[in-house]
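Fold this complex.
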Amino acid sequence: MELYTSGKQLRDLLKSLKKEGKSVGFVPTMGFLHEGHKSLMVRARRENDILVASVFVNPTQFGPGEDLDAYPRDLESDQKLMESVGVDYVFFPTTEEMYPTGHNTYVNVEGSLTKRMCGASREGHFQGVATIVSKLFNLCVPDRAYFGMKDAQQVAVIQRMVEDMNFDLEVVPCPIVREQDGLALSSRNTYLSTEERKDALKLSSSLARAREMIEEGIRDAHLIYDEMKAIIDSIPYARIDYIEILDARTLEPLNLVAGDVLIALAVWVGKPKLLDNIRLEVE
Amino acid sequence: MELYTSGKQLRDLLKSLKKEGKSVGFVPTMGFLHEGHKSLMVRARRENDILVASVFVNPTQFGPGEDLDAYPRDLESDQKLMESVGVDYVFFPTTEEMYPTGHNTYVNVEGSLTKRMCGASREGHFQGVATIVSKLFNLCVPDRAYFGMKDAQQVAVIQRMVEDMNFDLEVVPCPIVREQDGLALSSRNTYLSTEERKDALKLSSSLARAREMIEEGIRDAHLIYDEMKAIIDSIPYARIDYIEILDARTLEPLNLVAGDVLIALAVWVGKPKLLDNIRLEVE
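Structure:
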């Protein structure tokens, strides 16, 4: 495994490998890797000749009041995980490498896709995501790029962007990885106290309950919403950012649960805002 | 010469040619080609194995009140010109191909580079330019892309974008091509009446006078501006959009004329707004 800090050097190398007919799989991350990231890398390892991962805590996707410096980092542990999976090249740029003085270009996915859900409370977040992912795509020239479905809205935004910008690659969404008790893995879980960690289980329970209701034949989105909200509200200090029942492709809200459905939530459990979701095909 | 209307088909072809080690030169145009465009293609033909040109009247770069439908088009004449230069592939997409339903991603170069000069009077223009050029870059995968210096601000915006977005290509700015009497070539010249055509010469004359003053040792930008303005104001019906004396790299206005200098103007001569500029190294 080799570490690159220069995007141009990495690109030159990858271009020469691609000329030999090798395919490139790419897993962009902000580091502090867990089994969720690992699952993306394992899959990308299997599906490509070359595996590239990036570790970059991207300042432009942190909204006002969000603490960039406090974001957890552990490159040593990250390197061990990536080595164990068989990552070939790690791109580990400095902020100056990605955003040199004078940098002034941004990619925006407009419309409700970025304005609702996480976009409503995190101004500029998806612009930062679309911009850094575009830059990384141009440097890491992947044939396939892997993203976790835990950030379902991020996946939808990136898919939209890849299609609109005519990027020549496939976006591969990968399933959420959970702890044994159901909690979706996240770098943010590290902020949870023991008490909060226990209460956080209500998030995945509320989604399990939603699935159960749908299996029982309930199709009224408001009924499902109310039941999910009641479960989460039983954590007295939790603060709901959103609970949404959506068309999985457009992320438009549904009144009637049918088709390709995404049920997504974002809830502050103490300090961290936790995300979780389920996607299901409903007749 | 082959015409492509599908971006994906063209890209697949160009990718296979690049795998054979062939270099790709690219000249994006809005059609209605003249000797200015031809000079870009002649140069690109010389410097690359494969020459790709695009003809697409891009709706997103027309500002409010600008008449997209009235933009001159003549594909037959364009094809003859491109054939004569030895263009290999013409990309001629429909609007639906470039902006299908649901398209919602845009590239923005922010800051004074796009807010002043043509950006001040043409809201959204440079967003449209940056977006379509990004898309064309991703479809035509050029090693080199050629742009005319008549649109000096456009060249600066695209250079900024290519650097910021880590596009893997070289932007090649090419000199303005003029009529024998000095008028800068432009598709918009077709709108000029005989009288206006004669008066329009004052634009290049004012730039020639500016050059003369600098050669005489004058360094006060305001003196040069005043003299240029007087020359252009002698066309009674002309309306000046801007006359700017700038640092050629940053496009920041200069008080003292020194270094790499761009003198640029935009003037409505009757219906069309005409652009012209000179770039000079001043000690």
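Strands of chain A lie at 2-4, 24-29, 50-55, 89-91, 105-109, 144-148, 170-174, 239-247, 259-268, 273-282.
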